[in-house]
Amino acid sequence: MAESTTGLLQILWLASPALPVGGFSYSEGLEAAVDAGQVHDEASAAAWLGDQLHLGLARADLAVVAQAIPAWRNNDLARVNELNQWVLCTRETQEFRLQTEQMGRSLLEWARQLGELGGGVFERLLAAELNPPTYPVASACAAAHTDASVRDCLIGYAFGWSENMVQAAIKSVPLGQSAGQRMLARLAADIPAAVDHALALPDAHRQAFAPLLAILSARHETQYSRLFRS
Known about the structure:
Blueprint: H1 2-15, H2 30-35, H3 42-57, H4 61-73, H5 77-89, H6 94-114, H7 121-128, H8 135-144, H9 150-172, H10 177-200, H11 211-220
Helix pairs in contact: 1-9, 3-9, 3-10, 4-5, 4-8, 4-9, 4-10, 6-7, 6-8, 9-10
């Protein structure tokens, strides 16, 4: 029971918006969708985030984390590097690539600052010689250090992403906190299915194909007025 509780607390820690990796500063294309008029109220924001969870996160980053956690636990650094390179190669815009690199570096620095409290996560990331570490793969390294199941790790990762994205919607649409809580409830209900999808994906079926999102992200890079870095 003690080990299970410790694992749960560690996953909650990694999913927390307080983790100093800068996730709050990104909207992942949502702000551009608001600017384009495709997201304009609670219903359209909820639909957008639901689609992004199932069509984007589940098929790409969650699927990477699902494979990276056992690779870290087995010390299969060749596999870790392969997954890290896949993330880098599938970021379709400059801002999306900069996001995963910045958050990956920030997680590395977080682990460094923890020192012995980090349980060797910093040393394992350095040993893998990722250049640079992407956020999904670096996050998987931290999650692999826990005794939580891979599925629970993915649920935590997805919920952390959901909290950041709901806050981005509240600020950019804009919406009230009650609307945000309703959207978060919908995402939370969808997360288990998205996680199961990610766990079932073989390498050949993993993808990061979201053309409209890529177009909006490219437009966002030169958007005149914006709150978020992506």
